[in-house]
Design a protein that fits this description.
The chain contains 17 helices and two strands. The protein is an all-alpha fold. The protein has two domains: 146 residues, no CATH class; 192 residues, no CATH class. The protein has a two-stranded antiparallel ribbon. α1 runs antiparallel to α2, α5 runs antiparallel to α8 and α12 packs across α16. The radius of gyration is 19 Å and the shape is globular. One of its GO terms (molecular function) is oxidoreductase activity.
């Protein structure tokens, strides 16, 4: 992590805005700038933000303060977004951030679908930044992430802990599609309980016997989802990014948590990846063409994403580089190139 103060400046600008805009689209700014700074693109952050923040809404006001005794009734209530943001801001001022995360992780994890998985993704970026350097601005970002997750808390239907024998690649391939793909993610996730084969497909993943297996399996989930993006992204090139970035966010959060919470993290990450896949995967894959091969050094694929400018492409590149470093598979880099061909670039 580059410690020039650029991330703090960017967070400062973004914390004047809300976690959502234009209804309930997620504010990706904090996630994208954390990735940009970490990959050494500090010089591009404020230029990118100049265009992005113009789209955002103001920070929402609270209506009724939350306390430790009444949080359950407010969980998953987007009308209490301002109250949740204020609650976690106060929590992180009064208690160590790891203690707050440890307390709330088991409470929030069952609602991992929150904000189309952006609650956990934003949390993963915030924790990753805090593990590098702790300061007030990064603590505030964790509070914003947890507050957003709590307000949009949403469980995934008919999901039990994995109990099968399939590895992540085969498990993703076995996930059935929701029948009605005419509307947004809430409509699609609402169909899961009635989809034939859904419960069996999510149970098919091989479970982790301990924390170390959970960590390894999470990496395999992110690897499989990223490589699958190359041939399946046309189903929805924006939304299918999250099948890879949600498991990556959990993977990056677990080092800040006690190992006895890691298996639950794996199970929830798989639920999220499977749900996004069911909601948006195309009926058939397409071959990966040679024109998608990345010709340069691996690290420079992130520059391609920054030049493209879309926040989803930037986040996918961040995850894809992790996948490439673990696997050496050039298709991880080709997935980023694929995203740039399917997602419209941002003009600056």
């Amino acid at each position: 992590m580059n410690d020039t103060g650029t991330l703090e400046e960017a967070y400062g600008r973004l914390h004047r805005t809300g976690p959502e805009f234009d209804g309930w689209l997620s504010n990706h700014g904090p996630m994208a700038v954390e990735a940009m700074v970490r990959h050494g693109y500090d010089r591009d952050v404020h230029r990118w933000l100049d265009g992005y923040v113009a789209r955002l809404d103001e920070l929402p006001r609270g209506t009724s303060p939350l306390d430790a005794g009444d949080w359950r009734a407010a969980l998953g209530d987007p009308r209490r977004l301002g109250d949740w943001l204020a609650f976690f801001d106060r929590e992180l001022r009064e208690r160590p951030w790891r203690a707050v995360l440890e307390r709330w992780w088991p409470r929030l994890l069952p609602g991992i679908a929150a904000g189309a998985t952006h609650g956990v993704i934003r949390t993963g970026h915030a924790v990753h930044a805090l593990l590098q350097l702790q300061d007030a601005t990064r603590l505030a970002e964790l509070g914003q992430a947890l507050g957003y997750w709590a307000a949009r808390w949403q469980p995934i239907a008919a999901f039990d802990a994995p109990s099968g024998t399939a590895g992540p690649k085969r498990a993703f391939a076995g996930v059935p599609r929701v029948p009605d793909q005419s509307q947004g993610i809430n409509h699609r996730l609402g169909q899961l309980a009635e989809v034939p084969g859904w419960a069996a497909s999510v149970a098919a993943l091989r479970p982790a016997a301990d924390s170390e297996q959970a960590l390894a399996r999470l990496a395999e989930l992110a690897d499989a989802a990223t490589l699958r993006y190359l041939t399946h992204a046309h189903g929805n090139p924006v939304m299918l990014v999250h099948a890879a970035t949600a498991p990556t966010a959990v993977l990056r959060t677990l080092p800040a948590l006690p190992p006895d919470l890691w298996v639950a993290g794996l199970n929830a990450a798989w639920a999220a990846g499977a749900a996004v896949t069911a909601a948006y995967a195309p009926a058939e894959p397409v071959p990966a063409g040679r024109d998608l091969a990345w010709p340069g050094p691996a690290e420079e694929v992130f520059e391609l994403a920054v030049r493209h400018g879309d926040e989803h492409v930037i986040k996918l590149a961040d995850t894809a580089l992790d996948v490439y470093r673990r696997t050496g598979d050039p298709d991880a880099l080709a997935a980023v190139v694929r995203a740039t061909t399917l997602i419209s670039p941002v003009s600056t």
